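Researcher: Next entry: Signal peptidase I (Formimonas warabiya).
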Amino acid sequence: MLPKYKKMLTTGFVYLTFGLLSLFILINLFLGINKAITHNPVPKVFGISPLIVMSGSMEPAIYPGDVVIIWEQAAEKYKIGDIVTYLVGQTPFTHRIVGEENGLFILKGDSNNTVDDTVSADRFEGKVLFTVPKIGVAIVFFKKPAGMAVLVMLLLLYINGGDLYKKVRGTVSK
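Model: Predicted structure:
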């Protein structure tokens, strides 16, 4: 590969990695601050919220460690078959609508043997738009002190990595 294109690809990869890492940090900070201020267990940005699935109640559609992106919508738009997130106290649950009676929805986790209690649509936090497999495992790690330390080290390595590389290769004059 020509050196010019190799340098362009390397530079592009570095900027893309830094951009994604920065975006990840900013979104995490915003949602964390939003949750701390509003005490809402499901903080949202423009009606959209990412949630990490912690149980296997929705397997095989959604696995533990997956991230579901939910979007709040009007109560009349929910229908049987939709996967929705709702609150029981301060705990969010993500299950499928399997029935409706008297204006209340019947929900059930795909791998659960029994249905949940009936839930009114006003208790829904949103409908699952899509799922990002297994990224929740990394997010949970990065929210812990060790994970935050790794993020800071990656950021510092990104900022100072070029100089360190040049020093190790002996290309920096003393």
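Model: Note for the record: Residues 25 and 169 are 31 Å apart (CA to CA).
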